[in-house]
Amino acid sequence: MSGSRSASPGESPAPKRLNVFERYLSLWVALCMGVGIFAGKMFPAAVDALREMEFGKESQINIPIAVLIWLMIYPMMLKVDFTSILGVRKRPKGLIVTLVVNWLVKPFSMALIGYLFFKHLFLPWIGPELADQYLAGTIILAAAPCTAMVFVWSYLTDGDPAYTLVQVSVNDLIMLVLFAPIVKFLISGASSLTVPFMVLVYAVVFFIVIPLAAGVVSRTLLIRAKGSDWFEKFLSVLHPVTVIALLATLVCIFAFQADNITARSFHILLIAVPILIQVYFNSSLAYGLMKWLKVPHSVAAPGALIGASNFFELAVATAIALYGPGSGAALATVVGVLVEVPVMLSVCSVCNRTRHWFPADTSA
């Protein structure tokens, strides 16, 4: 993940580069938006047929999107190595900060920020029904800490790859227990929407438990049978599948949302505002706490980035399962995808420019 030399305090490390997909992710998302809207407007019958393909009547779990999201999530879960968690006992402070911000601050601050903007400041433009939908979508987004893209942000800030893996692994385990009750509690409390808890539980089982279990078992068996070098090559082969599945998912979602988007394109800008505030608030809070606790920069930067970014694949899947692929909640989670890359690159830039704030990376 990070094979470059360590930079001394105050020294800038060699510049890191994203691959073409990662560097222009926002552009690809915008192109998917265009393709999806075009398909939704030009081929409404075909889009309706895809929309109606569900696991059981009124389950709201769309089969094409579910399959595509599985293709995204499974390769991510293959990267999770829970044996690395044992080594964090020697350096617990960074993990503690990450967990506090992700689970005690982030979902609740998003609910508060979203309530302020959607239910008050933006209410004259969007109306009460969409206000509830957009608020629900942003809450779902905030309750799902990032998994895959964190490794990219960690790489760009010269983060400790082993510690980053620990942070991601522990968050995945906590999501199994806390994601559903937090989403239920906050959406029910902040909006007038009904949150069918069992549908939420099914979403967690379908989109976290099963792919996580499959990833852990596959990782163990493949490494035991083929070795670590072969396994790393296997992950690189799967990466294009993840990318294609992500883009195809976005095309489907925007096709399902075509009428909403063309009628309410201004709403995309409105949804982005509280999401942006949330990103900068949580990254600043985590980064500031890391500095206060004198955590090394190689742990502090990825920790701040995990607190700022989101597991948008899970968020999109959950919003669709709860409220349908054409809902305002699903649109809000997709807006999170649209703004994430440029915003997170700006956070990476700040982290790299403030490296000298932190102690040398010895132990913490």
Measured as a percent range, the helix fraction is over 70%
Overall pLDDT? 81
Low-confidence stretches: 1-13
Structural class: mainly alpha
Helix-strand blueprint:
Layout: H1 20-23, H2 25-42, H3 44-51, H4 63-78, H5 93-121, H6 123-142, H7 149-156, H8 161-190, H9 197-226, H10 228-256, H11 258-263, H12 265-292, H13 297-308, H14 312-323, H15 328-353
Description:
The N terminus is likely disordered. This protein is globular. It starts with 19 loop residues before the first helix and ends in an 11-residue tail after the last helix. The protein has 15 helices and no strands. The chain is an all-alpha fold. Helix 2 runs antiparallel to helix 15, helix 4 packs antiparallel against helix 10 and helix 6 packs across helix 8. Helix content is 76%, strand content 0%.
Key terms:
mainly alpha, single chain, 15 helices, 364 residues
What does this entry show, briefly?
By secondary structure, the protein is mainly alpha-helical. The protein is built from 15 helices and no strands. Helices cover 76% and strands 0% of the residues.
